[in-house]
Amino acid sequence: MQHYHYIFTGTGLSSMMTVYEMVVSGNFKDKSILLIDQNAKKTNDRTWCFWNQKNTFENIISKSWNMALYADSDAERVLDLSPYQYKMIKGLDFYTLILETILKESNIHFIQQKVIDFEELGNHCVVKTETQSFTCNQVFNSIFNPEIVKNQSKYPLLQQHFIGWFVKSKTTVFNPNQATFMDFSIEQKGNTRFMYVLPFSETEALVEYTLFSKELLETAEYEMAIQNYLQKLGITEYEIVEKEYGNIPMTSYPFWKHNSKNIINIGSAGGWTKASTGYTFKNTIKKSKALVEFLSTENDFRKFHKKDKFWFYDLLFLDVLNRNNALGSNVFSALFQKGNPTLIFKFLDEETTFTEDLQVIWKCPKWLFMKALFRRIF
Q1: What CA–CA distance (Å, rounded) separates 341 from 337?
Q2: Cα separation, 184 vs 226, whole angstroms
Q3: Same domain, 185 and 266
């Protein structure tokens, strides 16, 4: 069996970002690295959005917005995002950039196969595909196993699930300078449901129907909701250019407890998705940088994760939505209709002080969160 220093099972965002950070650091040229995935990453299978003040991957940003609309059934508010911008990256542009960068390195290899198993055997690991087996010093696993979370009840699991249409309207209706961040004015039907709109021009936009809930819907229900929303916007003639589907786990389950000395779970498999929002891209950039810095001084993956206050905030938020899913719009409206957008985004980026945390938290419906806190304590 061929041996490598590091093997990455799955080549999604977290694996690519971690290997990219290894290359950028210049400290891993003497380490052999193998990436294994059955997907060649040559299609535009998703988009990532994030808010940022910095020029992160600026050469592949497909669109950015300085303003965002928040709406519910009672009111609308246009949010000035300054000093942030809301940015979008297409999956294929990201894959192309990262693969072109990392595969120039002679010590990094990629094979297109399906991983079926991996395990730690003493001081080394074995990774098996459908046709081959490899050994390595350490494994970075990004293959998410939902059963780990489903087979327990201590930590709630919600799903951020959505279908989006990239539409081209025959009439000018969209404001290309303003994204619709969350529009809760649609019927909630006992869940947390909102529309999300990213305009690219006056006639083109991604229009997405999104839920934070336990159960998925039939495809027809998502698409009917999009059709109804387009009619509400006054769009009667349009072309569907492309469709997007997604399902992101939202949980504060402690995935890091499954890490061993030589196997670490990363990405959604490692709890890198921001549990309260489902946002992944910026969190992954931070985590991958931290992991590569960790590797410069440590080699025991059990020491990597450290639980912080933001993990607990997310846990309480998910406890609230898990028990009161129909009240999600109330929570978000309490934040966004009157709160400071810059402070809220800083809080969601996990960059606030405790005093700033309180400024955000006290805008939330207090009785819901006090009940959640009481249950967690007792």
Answers
A1: 9
A2: 13
A3: no
Q: Give, in degrees to the nearest 5, the angle at Cα 154 between 149 and 157.
A: 45
Q: Please spell the DSSP secondary structure of 89-146, one letter per residue.
A: EEHHHHHHHHHHHHTTSTTEEEE---EEEEEEETTEEEEEESS-EEEEEEEEE----T
Please state, in angstroms and rounded to a whole number, the distance separating the CA atoms of residues 294 and 304: 7
The continuous run of DSSP H or E covering 328 comes out as: helix 328-336
**Contacting residues for 145 by C-beta, under 8 A, at least 6 apart:** 269
Same domain flag for 328 and 277: no
Q: Is the pTM above the cut of 0.85?
A: yes
Domain range holding 193?
157-245
pLDDT at 55 over 90: no
Question: According to the model, what pLDDT value does residue 242 have?
Answer: 92
CATH code of the domain in which 35 resides: 3.50.50.60
The whole-number average pLDDT for the span 100-121 is: 95
Copy the structure tokens of residue 225. Answer: 């909701």
306: helix, strand or coil: coil
Count structural domains, the chain.
3
Q: Which of 194, 200, 212, 207 is nearest to 244 (CA)?
A: 207
SS3 of 35, please? strand
Q: In this predicted model, what pLDDT tens digit does every residue of 111-127 receive, in sequence order?
A: 999 999 999 998 899 99
